[in-house]
């Protein structure tokens, strides 16, 4: 039995589908009643050759450990160091420390100053090379190479796409609670390379990535009113979508990136609108006396999930992308808010307020199979990783400051995000090109 089969069966168990043929549940060693997952032991020694080898291994190790599916082995136990990329490892030594997977690599500084990075992924018990690849990059992009290697390892061992070569845009908060400064910031998914996109002179809210990953839309709130902006990450150019009578908020791109849905509040009533970015033409999608907000497209662009209190309390509804056929999908107790469709189309994530707490949950697009993943004083604003298996959200404590957290769709792997500062309203990018 290969280690990929074990992890594939682990995913099958979590997702409620049949275990793969020939894989015994005893081999997975999961205590379902306790919600414990036995992560796979994996060894990632420092890459040999030119600089950054140890740091690259640390980035890969951190990515895999945070996924909750891998247990990186302490380097002090390694039976070999400075592994030659061209020679098979001594698998007997790695078996002795219970490593099931082994990653080794080498860095070469080429004549033009670029880095060449070779890596191999091994199944320790079969001695089989599972994957290997060569990357060439500029020295300053070494972290991206480490993220790409992490994605290849994750995909080969789980059968699921990785999500490490991505970025997160969010609202960084500072200052006293009554006078918070809110800046738009962007960082790598592991918290590295944080940088400000706005100067904090006005309030920013609900940033959202375009499917191209190079453009962001967000709401800006000034004393003169609210506006929706487009921000190009590469050029740092910002432009408004135009002026609207009333409050405009909650923008989100369509899957193809050429339209933006948003809400407009006028006279106490809020409806959802859609703008074509090429022509700037607008169409009103809802006309209900209730408050309609937080639109999010299905991955195929055919439907929109949104939040509305038209039935007396905030609930989730799905309508056709042209505004027709709205139907309620949430029927549990409590108030449902901030829905966002999974990139895979199989789930809708949401914020739920019930029982004196806030929760992050998921349900199927027809409202079935509702699962509560987190609960606390204030959990809000879920966003999907591009593989549709991990969510980021923000958690606030009474009297504290909001922090970014992640949870997988089983709810078993819950932990703070690596970014150490205060932040809210996260939005996960697609995989970078």
Give structural notes.
The chain has two domains: about 40-160, Rossmann fold; about 165-430, 6 Propeller (Neuraminidase), CATH 2.120.10.30. About 10% of the residues lie in helices and about 40% in strands. The chain contains five helices and 30 strands. It has helices at about 5-15, 25-30, 55-65, 90-95, 140-160, and strands at about 40-45, 50, 70, 100-110, 115-125, 130-135, 165-175, 180-190, 195, 205-210, 215-220, 225-230, 240, 245-255, 260-265, 270-275, 280-285, 290-295, 305-310, 315-320, 325-330, 335-340, 350-355, 355-365, 370-375, 380-385, 390-395, 405-410, 415, 425-430. Strands 1, 2, 3, 4, 5 and 6 form a six-stranded mixed sheet that branches. It has a four-stranded antiparallel sheet with strand order 9-8-7-30, with no helix packed on it. The protein has a four-stranded antiparallel sheet with strand order 10-11-12-13, with no helix packed on it. α3 (about 55-65) packs across α5. The protein is elongated and about 70 Å long. Mean pLDDT is about 90; it is low at about 1-35.
The oligomeric status of these chains comes to single chain
Q: What's the mean pLDDT score?
A: 90
CATH superfamily of the largest domain: TolB, C-terminal domain
CATH architecture of the largest domain: 6 Propeller
Poorly predicted sequence stretches spanning 5 or more consecutive residues = 1-35
CATH topology type of the largest domain: Neuraminidase
Head-to-tail CA distance between termini = 34 Å
- What Rg do the Cα atoms give? 23 Å
Q: What is the count of β-strands?
A: 30
Percentage of β-strand residues: 35-45%
What is the number of independent domains? 2
